[in-house]
Amino acid sequence: MTELKVEVEPGVVGFDAARLARIDSHFARYVDDGRLPGWLILVSRGGKIAYLGKRGYRDLESGAPVEWDTLFRIYSMTKPVTAVAAMMLYEEGAFELKDPVSRFVPAFAGTRVYRGGSALKPVTEPLREPIRIWHLLTHTAGLTYGFHHAHPVDALYRAAGFEWGPPDGMDLAACCEVWARLPLLFQPGAEWNYSVASDVLGRVIEVVSGQSLDRFFVERIFQPLDMRDTRFWVNEEDAGRLAAFYAPHPETLRAARNDAMDRVARQRPACCLGGDGLVSTAADYHRFTQMLSRGGELDGVRLLSNRTLRYMTRNHLPGGADLETFGRPLFAETTFDGVGFGLGFSVTLNPVANKVLASPGEFAWGGAASTAFWVDPAEDITALLFTQLFPSSTHLLRPQLRQLVYQALVD
Question: What's the predicted TM-score (pTM) here?
Answer without folding.
Answer: 0.97
